Amino acid sequence: MADFVGLPAMTFLDATLKTAADGAPVAHIGTQSVRLDGYQFAQGAGPSPGPVTLGVRPERVLVGQAAGLEALEARRTGLEPHGADTLVLLDLDGQALTARVNPEIAGALDDRVHVGFDIEGVSLFDPDDGARI
């Protein structure tokens, strides 16, 4: 998996991939789910149901209103100021998630935060061998 590239590191979440009635891939993370419309599967792969590891870089985690209508709900556990950016540390159904946001946005967040993902920054991996799906 791509955990060695970039700082802060990519977040990895245990998820289960399922297919919606319309054929769209859906990742179930704990008790919540998020559609992955537009996800580009690796060549030869497709939305095969089962366990996956969902990887997302902190700058591709959307928070607050930017998360959209199908947002997940996370609990804010901390803030780490880094000059022009602030890392928002989150708990998403018992799993750690990090978002990189503007400090003004970070300061206005409540303890409960709506989050989503920029699909361009999401990668799915096979949890057994780490290969990108």
Automatic annotation (TrEMBL):
<dbReference type="GO" id="GO:0043190">
    <property type="term" value="C:ATP-binding cassette (ABC) transporter complex"/>
</dbReference>
<keyword id="KW-0067">ATP-binding</keyword>
<dbReference type="GO" id="GO:0005524">
    <property type="term" value="F:ATP binding"/>
</dbReference>
<dbReference type="InterPro" id="IPR013611">
    <property type="entry name" value="Transp-assoc_OB_typ2"/>
</dbReference>
<dbReference type="InterPro" id="IPR012340">
    <property type="entry name" value="NA-bd_OB-fold"/>
</dbReference>
<dbReference type="GO" id="GO:0022857">
    <property type="term" value="F:transmembrane transporter activity"/>
</dbReference>
<feature type="domain" description="Transport-associated OB type 2">
    <location>
        <begin position="54"/>
        <end position="125"/>
    </location>
</feature>
<dbReference type="Pfam" id="PF08402">
    <property type="entry name" value="TOBE_2"/>
</dbReference>
<keyword id="KW-0547">Nucleotide-binding</keyword>
<protein>
    <submittedName>
        <fullName>Glycerol-3-phosphate transporter ATP-binding subunit</fullName>
    </submittedName>
</protein>
<dbReference type="InterPro" id="IPR008995">
    <property type="entry name" value="Mo/tungstate-bd_C_term_dom"/>
</dbReference>
